[in-house]
Design goal:
The protein is built from 18 helices and 22 strands. It has 766 residues and is of the alpha+beta class. Keywords: ATP-binding, Coiled coil, Kinase, Nucleotide-binding, Phosphoprotein, Transferase, Two-component regulatory system.
Length: 766
């Protein structure tokens, strides 16, 4: 046996034999003796870890104080008092006192004094009020080390004859000292008649001015979600109140909250929830707009009733503000705007406590500011437009805070939470904008250009004037004053008639243009139909001749040419077959619901050979969901829409001098619209003409002479294609507009057609 090991053995025996055992000495000797174990090795912990857990791990004063307040909540406290004594300079004292359940000697030793204690994991619900406990990692208590150099704990358990006092000098936990060798004095103290815990943090590391304390007060007020009283086996949970006091030179002053009652000026209240069965909903209530709305929202954008996978027991309540003098009283506008600079945003609460930095100024955890900057949705929806909170009841621990207590881990549950809140808020903002008759997306145009509405207004004015004249005649007034009034009314009547005549001429000219174009298109349709019929009559002979040539004994060059000819003929047959199907379907005037797959797939099959000949990439088809039925339509109408998009894409791709790529994506939007998005990688559409491309006779490719016509592009612009698309879509109360291009594409046009109703689908399979 090693001589040193023998010395340690003898020394340990001697210490243990003494009447008063020196436990620190026993621990040190035992640790040194264990180092002679050649078969095992053990972790040791440096006392400097305490500094890392407190001073470094807890980044901010606010976070440190909030952790200590949370301990009171976990202990079923109904009141927590914080007193700052002589804190204008470094070295002051902070006293945190609660009336919670307190701690026994065992709880102090096995709970408070044990790093990463599992007590809150093993007992996640408080005893008295069954509160969901906020902390689980067992390191939040080291916030006291972040705040001051010395800590005294006095704690009392109900119906106990005494309490306990524990004194800790954090400076004793220095580096290069084994953590287990640092001891702290504990002693019994007289009971005080009621339970609770008092933390006295002395020799504070920072100064706390009145402004700093007010800031902490505001922070603590924010992290404490207003408690909704609930009943359990023990009765009513009264919630928890937090009081702040400042005590300088024996003068005690309470710090009060100065909140603004601003929510009565909100444009709307938006509320949402995901229930215990993972089903999501959201609702809008607006007194100003006299508008209420509710809807399901699911994991899949196109399937509102699809349950979420990772989130439940989530709810939010948000007030939506538009800073418009028409919506907010002028005297309140500046007050609310100023208040919003510090208090707007959507805060996140987990098990009753605020999780930072979500909802802080500059934090965009829901990407609301980012979305507004993109301008894909025009109605404003920045963080400054919202005041509210999200509440998570996290019984299963799906949402975990980071070890620094600054945010949640970015796991699947958190991403799903962001998805739910962002989509429901944006959907609500869109619904509110629709109620206000506002433009939703760039490129969106009103269905009417306003002229017909203007004529109606003029006619109403004329009718009103005539009615007034009738009243005058019936009254028999013949005074000079009456005659003067009558002359003015007649003059006004003539002016209104003149305006109606002008508007009528404009409307008639437009109607004549449309009728003329319909006749042209009708004759073109007849010609195409006749052409298709004639071509089909020659198919059998051509196929027979090609078959004979393929079997003939020819040289390789001739065979290659015949093979190419056969390929081109197959392409022609595909085109003719597609047009024949479209024309035949259009002969039957009955409209029927169309599933987007039966629209898109035949179209892509018909252009496949042409795309290969042009050297394009294989087109992409994306279908988000099933049963994507539009309201009853003519099949030929979708053919017209898609061919117009395709011919425009070909011209754009040619101008861009790139390898063509086309993508067609279909799905169902949250407002029961079936959408189709047609994307290409051409030269794009300039922002300044996005709203004009659907106008009649507007084109970017028209040639003024035959010599300038580029036949290699196969088509030239007449300015009618997208106008026809607009008219088709509008006739079904749909919309067509330019949206932001997807990745790897430069242009995207979106068509929305109302979804088929249950009644529309009744006879679809008959």
């Amino acid at each position: 046996m090693d001589n040193k090991e023998e010395i340690l053995r003898e020394e340990l025996k001697e210490v243990l034999s003494l009447p008063k055992i020196d436990y620190v000495r026993v621990l040190k000797l035992s640790t040194q003796l264990a180092e002679f174990d050649q078969s095992h090795i053990r972790f040791s912990v440096d006392a400097g870890l305490i500094d890392k857990l407190g001073n470094e791990l807890v980044a901010r004063q606010e976070t440190a104080v909030s952790e200590l307040v949370k301990n009171g909540y976990d202990a079923d406290a109904t009141d927590v008092k914080l007193t700052f004594e002589n804190t204008e300079k470094i070295g002051g004292t902070l006293i945190i006192e609660d009336n919670g359940s307190g701690m026994s000697a065992e709880q102090l030793r096995d709970g408070f004094m044990r790093i990463s204690s599992t007590e809150k994991i093993q007992n996640p619900v408080s005893v008295k009020y069954h509160r969901r406990r906020a902390g689980k990692k067992g390191i939040g208590r080291f916030s006291v080390q972040r705040l001051g150099h010395n800590l005294t704990i006095r704690t009392y358990v109900a119906n106990s004859q005494n309490g306990y006092q524990l004194d800790i000098d954090w400076d004793a936990y220095s580096s290069n000292v084994d953590l287990g060798f640092v001891s702290n004095k504990i002693k019994q103290i007289p009971a005080r008649g009621f339970s609770g815990t008092v933390l006295v943090i002395k020799n504070l590391r920072d100064r706390w001015s009145e402004a700093a304390i007010s800031r902490i007060y505001q922070y603590i007020s924010d992290i404490m979600l207003p408690q909704k009283h609930h009943y359990d086996e023990e009765g009513l949970d009264p919630g928890m109140n937090v009081y702040f006091y400042q005590n300088n030179d024996s003068v005690r002053k309470e710090i009060l909250d100065q909140k603004l009652d601003i929510f009565q000026h909100a444009l709307a209240l938006i509320e949402g929830k995901v229930d215990s069965n993972y089903n999501g909903t959201f609702a809008i209530h607006s007194n100003k707009l006299k508008f209420d709305y509710s809807s399901e929202i699911g994991l899949d954008v196109d399937m509102p009733n699809m349950p979420f996978k990772n989130i439940r027991n989530v709810k939010y309540r948000v007030y939506y503000f538009i800073y418009d003098s028409k919506l907010i009283p002028r005297g309140q506008m500046s007050i609310i705007k100023k208040y919003s600079l510090k208090n707007s945003g959507i805060k996140l609460y987990r098990n009753g406590f605020r999780v930072l930095p979500y909802g802080e100024w500059g934090d965009d955890w829901l990407s609301l500011d980012k979305s507004t900057r993109r301008r894909s949705i025009l109605p404003t929806h920045t963080n400054q437009n919202f005041f509210g909170y999200v509440e998570i009841s996290d019984e299963s621990g799906d949402f975990e805070e980071t070890s620094s207590r600054e945010g949640l881990l970015n796991n699947e549950a958190f991403v799903e939470l962001q998805n739910f809140i962002y989509r429901s808020l944006v959907s609500a903002v869109i619904k509110i904008a629709e109620q206000r008759n506002l433009k939703i997306v760039s490129g969106q145009k009103q269905q009417d250009d306003g002229q017909w509405e203007e004529i109606n207004v003029r006619v109403k004015n004329i009718a009103f004037t005539i009615s007034e004249l009738d009243k005058d005649f019936e009254s028999g007034q013949e005074t000079i004053e009456a005659k003067t009034k009558r002359r003015k009314k007649i003059k006004k009547l003539k002016e209104e008639f003149d305006e109606v005549k002008k508007l009528q001429k404009i409307a008639q000219a437009k109607s004549l243009r449309e009728k003329s174009m319909l006749r042209i298109l009708g004759s073109v349709g007849l010609t195409v139909g006749q052409f298709v019929h004639e071509i089909k009559n020659h198919f059998t002979n051509i196929e027979s001749d090609l078959s004979s040539l393929m079997e003939a004994q020819l040289d390789n060059e001739a065979k290659n040419r015949i093979s190419l000819l056969n390929k081109n003929f197959t392409s022609l047959k595909t085109y003719i077959s597609y047009f024949d199907h479209v024309i035949s379907a259009n002969v039957v005037r009955t409209l029927r619901p169309l599933e987007m797959r039966e629209v898109v797939k035949p179209f892509l099959d018909s252009i496949k050979a042409d795309m290969e000949r042009q050297g394009y990439q294989t087109p992409k088809m994306i279908f988000n969901g099933y049963n994507l039925y539009t309201k009853p339509m003519h099949p030929s109408e979708w053919s017209s829409i898609l061919f117009n998009f395709y011919t425009n894409s070909k011209k754009a791709i040619k101008r861009a001098k790139t390898k063509g790529a086309i993508c067609i994506e279909c799905g169902e939007s949250a407002d029961n619209m079936i959408y189709l998005e047609f994307s290409d990688n051409g030269d794009g559409i300039p922002k300044e003409i996005e709203n004009r491309i659907f106008e009649e006779f507007y084109t970017t490719t028209a040639s003024d002479t035959l010599d300038k016509l580029d036949f290699s592009s196969e088509v030239t612009g007449t300015g009618l294609g997208l106008s026809i698309v607009r008219d088709i879509v509008s006739s079904y109360k749909g919309r067509v507009f330019v949206v932001s291009a997807k990745n790897n594409y430069s242009t995207c046009i979106r068509v929305e057609i109302p979804k088929a109703s249950a009644k529309d689908l009744e006879n679809i399979y008959c």
